[in-house]
């Protein structure tokens, strides 16, 4: 797990930092990706993790970001009345377990040019719980 | 939930009040001066130090939109008639911070060559669910928690490290709001060692 976590950090993060910073980055990477002790214990709860998205999203309403009801199987960039980036509209993504997992791991890498300014949910187990929860949302009313 | 549970438990009320007047009297000003120096006052920003100012403007625009919504949410809370002192004063103070954040974000977007969006004329808040002071506090706490997460998710994306620093400064302020609102709700004010 340790090597994998470190390997996942883009090299630019470590560049110019010297050993001490590289070490610190590795510790933080462990924390943020869930290999650290902080993650031990309870199963992550998708609904709770969704609270991280509350500044911009809600299930029922378009806000800074589009609403999430009916996400399962929907084409990316297709919620009516929401003004997406070109990048999202032209992404040809359909939201399912795989595509959501990839997008939420690193939104700007998955959809270059997206206006969703959020680094992502880095812990795999948290992301999986969040994706399951999002996919189970009912259709929009 | 009964009305009495909304108000901070007697033992906690006094420190909350003291802290609040300290915040209004001193903290707010100091923070805003620091934030302005960090953001709007930096000549290096105007010069567009490194590569991706456009992407940075994008991140700032997202933050600005969230701040504007928070301002409107506190306005709704303050005008609802559901908030009593000292909670009402708290809401007004926090709204003031969000206004300062929004101002500094907007002027930074301008400095970087972007065009800051105006606040929406109306927001689609779940007003039907806001029936008591406790509902309003929970709603506000949810927005503050979301704002903390959003800034946390924005900090590593900034190309310009001064902007990352400024975002972290705002994150700290909003985390304090969240903690105080939790306290007012009778919840553990700081539920964990890390925010996420």
From TrEMBL, chain A:
It comes from the Bacteria. GO terms for molecular function: electron transfer activity; heme binding; metal ion binding. InterPro entries: Cyt_c-like_dom, Cyt_c-like_dom_sf, Cyt_c_1A/1B. Residues 41-138 form the Cytochrome c domain. The lineage of its organism: Bacteria, Pseudomonadati, Pseudomonadota, Alphaproteobacteria, Sneathiellales. The keyword Calcium does not apply. Residues 1-40 form the signal peptide. This is Cytochrome c2. Keywords: Electron transport, Heme, Iron, Metal-binding, Signal, Transport. PANTHER family: CYTOCHROME C. The keyword Iron applies.
UniProtKB/TrEMBL annotation, chain B:
The chain crosses the membrane at residues 21-40. The keyword Transmembrane helix applies. PROSITE patterns: TAT. InterPro entries: Ferritin-like, Ferritin-like_SF, TAT_signal. Keywords: Membrane, Transmembrane, Transmembrane helix. Pfam families: Ferritin_2. It comes from the Bacteria. Gene3D superfamilies: 1.20.1260.10. This is Ferritin-like domain protein.
């Amino acid at each position: 797990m340790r090597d994998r976590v470190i390997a996942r950090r883009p090299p630019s993060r470590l560049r110019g930092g010297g050993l001490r910073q590289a070490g610190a980055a590795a510790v933080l990477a462990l924390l943020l990706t869930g290999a650290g002790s902080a993650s031990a214990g309870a199963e992550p709860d998708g609904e709770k993790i969704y609270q991280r998205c509350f500044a911009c999203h809600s299930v029922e309403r378009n806000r800074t970001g589009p609403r999430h009801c009916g996400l399962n199987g929907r084409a990316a960039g297709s919620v009516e009345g929401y003004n997406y980036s070109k990048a999202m509209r032209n992404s040809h993504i359909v939201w399912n377990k795989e595509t959501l997992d990839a997008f939420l791991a690193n939104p700007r890498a998955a959809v270059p040019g997206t206006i969703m300014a959020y680094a992502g949910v880095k812990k795999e187990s948290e992301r999986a719980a969040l994706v399951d929860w999002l996919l189970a949302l009912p259709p929009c009313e | 939930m009964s009305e009495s549970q909304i108000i901070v438990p007697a033992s906690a009320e006094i420190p909350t009040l003291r802290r609040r007047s300290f915040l209004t009297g001193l903290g707010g000003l100091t923070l805003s001066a620091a934030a302005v120096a960090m953001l709007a006052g930096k000549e290096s920003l105007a010069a567009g130090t490194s590569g991706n100012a456009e992407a940075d403007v994008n991140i700032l625009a997202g933050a600005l939109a969230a701040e504007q919504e928070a301002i409107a949410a506190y306005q709704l809370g303050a005008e609802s008639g559901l908030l009593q002192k000292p909670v009402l004063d708290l809401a007004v103070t926090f709204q003031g911070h969000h206004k300062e954040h929004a101002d500094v974000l907007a002027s930074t977007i301008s400095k970087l060559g972007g065009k800051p969006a105006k606040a929406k004329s109306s927001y689609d808040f779940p007003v039907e669910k806001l029936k008591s002071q406790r509902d309003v506090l929970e709603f506000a706490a949810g927005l503050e928690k979301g704002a903390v997460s959003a800034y946390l998710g924005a900090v590593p994306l900034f190309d310009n490290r001064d902007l990352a620093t400024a975002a972290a400064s705002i994150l700290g302020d909003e985390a304090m709001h969240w903690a105080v609102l939790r306290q007012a709700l009778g919840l553990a004010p700081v539920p964990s060692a890390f925010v996420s």
